[in-house]
Amino acid sequence: QVQLLQSGAEVKEPGASVMVSCKTSGYIFTKYSVTWVRQAPGQGLEWMGYISTYNNNANYAQQFQGRVTMTTDASTSTAYMYLSSLRSDDTAVYYCAREGSRFDKWGQGTLVSVTS
Amino acid sequence: DIQMTQSPSSLSASVGDRVTITCQASQDISFYLNWYQQKPGKAPELLIYDASKLEMGVPSRFSGSGSGTRFTFTISSLQPEDVATYYCQQYENLPRTFGPGTKLDIK
Hints:
Chain A is mainly beta. Chain A has strands spanning 3-6, 10-12, 18-25, 33-39, 46-51, 58-60, 68-73, 78-83, 92-99, 103-106, 110-114. The radius of gyration of chain A is 13 Å and the shape is globular. By secondary structure, chain B is mainly beta. Chain B has no helices and eleven strands. In chain B, strands 2, 4, 5, 6, 9, 10 and 11 form a seven-stranded mixed beta sheet that branches. Chain B has a four-stranded antiparallel beta sheet with strand order 1-3-8-7, with no helix packed on it. In chain B, strand 5 and strand 6 form a beta hairpin. Chain A binds chain B through residues 35, 37, 44-47, 49-50, 59, 61-62, 95, 97, 101-104, 106-109, and chain B through 32, 34, 36, 38, 43-46, 49-50, 55, 87, 89, 91, 94-101.
């Protein structure tokens, strides 16, 4: 069955960087893009961007431009999201999702806490 | 960017009730709209795609309709396990955008 398994929770200081991984299984990795969505505590869903696993082209939401990088490793069917210059308001649960016009399978989420 | 709004922001209904949530887009998005359910502490789950198509394995009491700028999500007979927050999301254009969510609980 299709699964997306994310890396574990992270605690970071302001100004640091974080990388979240999303290991996929159960389908052909290069047939679907991977989208990243985050959710701050008690808030709604915020789209961060997506990456094509076919050609590694990425598109980022404007508010993350310059701070986020999304990559993939097709040899391990894994997607990565790297966020730099962390601030306290980056504290959130970060989700990866498989995208083929709709986000039909999601990872379990990774809590990133930014605190001094 | 396409802005998505939802109404109501929260509602309380009784088991067996028919529940309707409305989603409005700031511009024409044709049928490029999905609906997700998120239970507390869990990842969102896809319920409806392309405005009205039921995702495989989703109970038939869930349905969606609409096109253009106005969309409706309906639960025909509310069940206790439907307590959740529901989000609409457009994919007509980048960036993908979500509605603010509708929190549903049982009266």
